[in-house]
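Appendix C reproduces, verbatim, an entry submitted by the partner laboratory led by Prof. M.T., so that reviewers can inspect both the input and the predicted structure.
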Amino acid sequence: MEGASVVLTDLLTRKEMTIDHIDQFVPVLGGQVEDELYWALKPLRKQIYRIGDCVAPRRIPQAVLEGARIGRLVP
């Protein structure tokens, strides 16, 4: 498998990234949106926001960025 490459696609942006010269590839599949709490609270709250894995499975930096953006909106 010398010189093998893998092409990855970001599920949110659809941007592709190629990683060359890999020896092994271990896919991690099954990421799911976790939005049950959001939908349970939505009828009870005037303002409620979804961030992080409630929107789409992703990494911590994206959730922190979204939290910071939403935090600036809340009076």
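Residues 60-73 form the longest helix (14 residues). Additional entries are available on request from the coordinating office.
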